[in-house]
Every structure is written in C-alpha cells, then in structure tokens.
Design goal:
This protein is an all-alpha fold. It has helices spanning 4-23, 30-53, 59-96.
Length: 97
C-alpha cells in the first residue's frame, strides 16, 4: 500500500500537522480548543480502525501516528484547561466590577 519513503513522509507530515494544531491552540478560543482535542481523539480511533481493516497498512506507521497523538494529547489538554481557568477568572473579575 505505502512504500517506505512515502510512509516516512506521511509520518513526518502527520506529526507536523498534530504539532502545529497543538501549538496554535493557545490562540484559539475554548470551543476551538475543544474541537482540536476531539479531533485528536477521533484520530486515534480512525487510525486503529485502519490498522484492523487494512492488514497491508504498515504497523510501524500506525504505531508512530498513535504515539504522536498520545504525546500531543497532554499538552493539548493542559492548554485547554488553562484556557478554561483563564475564562473563569475573567468572568469573576467582570462580575466584581
């Protein structure tokens, strides 16, 4: 299905896309951050479904992609929770004025 050079490029592109999405989360609103987290969760399920359905899909590529998502998830979750905390503090300050 995927030749090794193509699979390596796909893995690098996937890792780059996930890294950019997590990096840009700081600039997004809470709803958009939640959508990024949701997309990360759906990505893991989709990758696992592909591995089960297509036995010729390189297992090392699937494992690398899932590992990238698992590594990125704590950073994305931390950013999202920090954004929620900041929103609560902003609302608290606005209500005390």
């Amino acid at each position: 299905m995927l030749r090794p050079p193509t699979a390596i490029i796909a893995a690098i592109a996937f890792a780059g896309a996930v890294a950019i999405a997590v990096w840009q989360m700081r600039r997004l609103k809470a709803r958009a951050q939640f959508l990024v987290l949701l997309a990360l969760g759906v990505t893991i399920g989709f990758l696992l479904m592909i591995v089960v359905q297509l036995p010729e899909f390189p297992h090392w590529l699937a494992a690398a992609m899932v590992l990238v998502v698992f590594i990125a998830s704590p950073f994305a979750t931390r950013t999202f929770l920090h954004s929620l905390k900041q929103d609560e503090q902003d609302e608290l300050h606005e209500s005390t004025k």
